[in-house]
């Protein structure tokens, strides 16, 4: 053991101007840099911060020393290294900082889900604080992959409008050569419990779903959709979203991203120049064209708010979804449901954008972090070597025609592709709700392309009770024809948990297509079926859904062609009309805030409610929060004076 050491050799390259004008913090930062082993001759180079959601600890050969929470942050260190090497090769000084992220799949059905959506806001705050805490940074390269870490990173970069920020999506894991995808495999418990698969089958499928150790899931869920939206916003270099994790094309993208940040600094451009009303429109347009996760209805407004742009509301999303067909056939949507790596190889976001420009819908003069507008990117895309190589690789390796994955829009009707997101209203959701219309099983759609459902309500105030009834472990068990009504699961109740264990069970159980779900919770991006979420107002905010009881007659109608829909209580279980029910009934007697909700989540829920709640993106509107607190404090002070 030693108690002192010699310290770094050499000397700092200081000057009279530096010593007189730099802050003590800037000078001490140089001391810290060489103390960590950095060459003192290089410390005055331009500083760039590489932020990431890296998790776990890998050996150089890739084996696990300490596990991460999920594959999505497992290999991100390789992207950090590639970006840092690019910066160092150009005489810049790379810094790296981390804020890891949870796994929504790992926390499904557990109390961990109470922290999932609130984490996004917390991580965005941490990322912004890390950015501001490196005072001399010229640019920021943000590397993230999955459901909450990636939206948080986008919020953080969007909230740094004066910097040269570039986002690096962490790509996707490959599907297993034989076996189920990571969406379907999450239903092995309920299928086994219902006797629809054996113990041996469950054990095998649960083991082999991840074809590679890194990257986001193989379906166009929230993680993959967030990558697509990031590129659509112009925050990434071209053809970055959904790259196969761990391959050379993936790490090359990190190098290109670091170079793009340096180029932005050289040209005096910033992420604030990229994020505009036009780029926001393009993100919503491409989200609709690919059939993306409904969770982006929470994240896109949050990113807009961070960028100082007007937050889109349900009407804005609805208008865009009605204006563009879905022409990407990717899991969990059909009719085939290709894995995300095929979407990338078929051309990814540039291919989708090219079709949208041909249709006259893309705002193609919007700028991107590459320094090019979408017009400039797309002018060279169609005949590019990259496009040709990727599409040929898809045809050769998987024997799949790229035009069957990203379908030319003129062929979507013949291919059976339908639009995606519908925003039903009705007496149970006067502020609106969300359903993925494209993912309702075709067998329960009428000939006029309308889903019609009338059935008795089965009301639950906890997801645990609902999934037990779906599994047949709670009587009466859920059966064909039922309408599950799950309430008190919005932000105020439990942090707006994700209910994928229910939606996946309904998808993969033989009778599940004949059951509907209505809830004030949210859904996983891979959810499918007749599942209506984001019901507003939520039950604990006075929403009428709080007054539904077992046996009440519920009616759902979703027009998949026009993307119009309604969700209504028709009559009570004893035949009273809906108007009388809403006037006379009190909220469900079991409705309450989750007893195990963390205080951190309660605080998040209260603050986001002031900022507009779920339909406002669950963000913190600081001015509105401060004004509300001031008014509340004044009211309480006045009340005390009156009492005295």
From TrEMBL:
Gene3D superfamilies membership: IlvD/EDD C-terminal domain-like
Q: Keywords in UniProt for this one?
A: Lyase
Q: What residues does the Dihydroxy-acid/6-phosphogluconate dehydratase C-terminal domain cover?
A: 425-568
PROSITE patterns from the xrefs? Answer: ILVD_EDD_1, ILVD_EDD_2
Give one GO term, molecular function aspect.
xylonate dehydratase activity
Q: Which Pfam families match?
A: ILV_EDD_C, ILVD_EDD_N
Keyword Cell division in record? no
Report domain Dihydroxy-acid/6-phosphogluconate dehydratase N-terminal positions: 69-376
What EC number(s) does the entry state? 4.2.1.82
Q: Which InterPro entries match?
A: Dehydratase_YjhG/YagF, Dihydro-acid_dehy_C, DiOHA_6PGluconate_deHydtase_CS, ILV_EDD_C, ILV_EDD_N, IlvD/EDD_N
From what superkingdom does this record's organism come?
Bacteria
Concerning its family, UniProt says: Belongs to the IlvD/Edd family.
| Annotated NCBIfam families | yjhG_yagF
Q: Please give the PANTHER family that the UniProt record associates with this protein.
A: D-XYLONATE DEHYDRATASE (PTHR43661), D-XYLONATE DEHYDRATASE YAGF-RELATED (PTHR43661:SF3)
- The name this protein carries in UniProt is YjhG/YagF family D-xylonate dehydratase
Species per Swiss-Prot/TrEMBL record = Roseiconus lacunae
Native organism taxonomy: Bacteria, Pseudomonadati, Planctomycetota, Planctomycetia, Pirellulales
């Amino acid at each position: 053991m030693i108690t002192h050491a010699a310290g770094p050799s050499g000397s700092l390259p200081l000057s009279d101007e530096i010593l007189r004008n730099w802050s003590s913090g800037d000078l001490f930062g140089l001391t810290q840099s060489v103390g960590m082993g950095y060459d003192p001759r290089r410390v005055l180079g331009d500083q760039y911060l590489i932020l990431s959601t890296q998790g776990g600890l890998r050996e150089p050969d890739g084996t696990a020393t300490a596990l991460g929470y999920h594959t999505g942050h497992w290999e991100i260190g390789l992207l950090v290294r590639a970006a840092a090497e690019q910066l160092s090769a150009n005489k810049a000084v790379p810094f790296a900082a981390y804020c890891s992220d949870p796994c929504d799949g790992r926390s499904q059905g557990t109390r961990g889900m109470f922290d999932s959506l609130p984490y996004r806001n917390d991580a965005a705050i941490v990322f912004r604080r890390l950015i501001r805490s490196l005072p001399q940074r010229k640019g920021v390269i943000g590397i993230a992959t999955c459901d909450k870490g990636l939206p948080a990173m986008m919020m953080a970069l969007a909230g740094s409008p004066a910097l040269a920020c570039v986002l690096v999506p962490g790509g996707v894991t490959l599907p297993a050569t034989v076996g189920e995808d990571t969406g379907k495999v999450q239903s092995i418990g309920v299928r086994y419990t219902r006797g629809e698969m054996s113990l041996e089958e469950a054990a095998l499928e649960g083991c082999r779903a991840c074809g590679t150790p890194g990257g986001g899931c193989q379906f166009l869920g929230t993680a993959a959709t967030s990558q697509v939206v990031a590129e659509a916003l112009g925050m990434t270099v071209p053809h970055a979203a959904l790259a196969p994790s761990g391959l050379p094309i993936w790490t090359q993208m990190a190098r290109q991203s670091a170079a793009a940040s340096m180029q932005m600094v050289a040209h005096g451009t910033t992420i604030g120049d990229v994020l505009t009303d036009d780029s926001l429109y393009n993100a919503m347009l491409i989200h609709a064209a690919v059939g993306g996760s409904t969770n982006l209805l929470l994240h896109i407004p949050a990113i807009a708010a961070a960028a100082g742009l007007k937050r889109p509301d349900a009407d804005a999303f609805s208008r865009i979804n009605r204006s563009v067909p879905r022409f990407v056939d990717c899991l969990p949507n059909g009719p085939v449901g290709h894995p995300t790596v095929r979407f990338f190889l078929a051309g990814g976001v540039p291919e989708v954008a090219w079709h949208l420009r041909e249709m006259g819908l893309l705002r193609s003069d919007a700028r991107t972090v590459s320094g090019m507008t979408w017009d400039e990117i797309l002018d060279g895309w169609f005949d590019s070597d990259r496009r040709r190589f990727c599409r040929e690789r898809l045809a050769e390796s998987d024997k799949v025609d790229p035009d069957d994955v990203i379908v030319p829009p003129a062929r979507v009707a013949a291919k059976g592709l339908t639009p995606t997101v519908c925003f039903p209203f009705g007496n149970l959701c006067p502020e609106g709700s969300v359903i993925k219309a494209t993912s309702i099983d075709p067998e329960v759609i009428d000939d006029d392309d309308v889903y019609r459902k009338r059935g008795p309500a089965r009301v639950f105030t906890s997801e645990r009770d609902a999934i037990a009834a779906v599994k047949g472990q709670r009587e009466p068990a859920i059966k064909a024809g039922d309408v599950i009504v799950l309430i008190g699961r919005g932000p105020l109740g439990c942090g707006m948990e994700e209910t994928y264990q229910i939606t996946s069970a309904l998808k993969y159980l033989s009778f599940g297509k004949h059951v509907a779900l209505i809830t004030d919770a949210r859904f996983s991006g891979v959810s499918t079926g007749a599942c209506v979420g984001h019901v507003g107002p939520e039950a604990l905010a006075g929403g009428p859904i709080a007054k539904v009881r077992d046996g009440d007659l519920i009616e759902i109608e979703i027009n998949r062609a026009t993307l119009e829909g309604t969700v209504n209580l028709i009559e009570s279980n004893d035949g009273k009309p809906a108007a009388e029910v809403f006037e006379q009934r009190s909220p469900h007697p079991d409705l309450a805030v989750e007893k195990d909700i963390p205080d951190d989540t309660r605080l998040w829920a209260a603050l986001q409610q002031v900022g507009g709640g779920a339909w406002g993106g669950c963000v913190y509107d600081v001015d509105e929060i401060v004004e509300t607190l001031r008014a509340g404090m004044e009211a309480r002070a006045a009340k005390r004076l009156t009492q005295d």
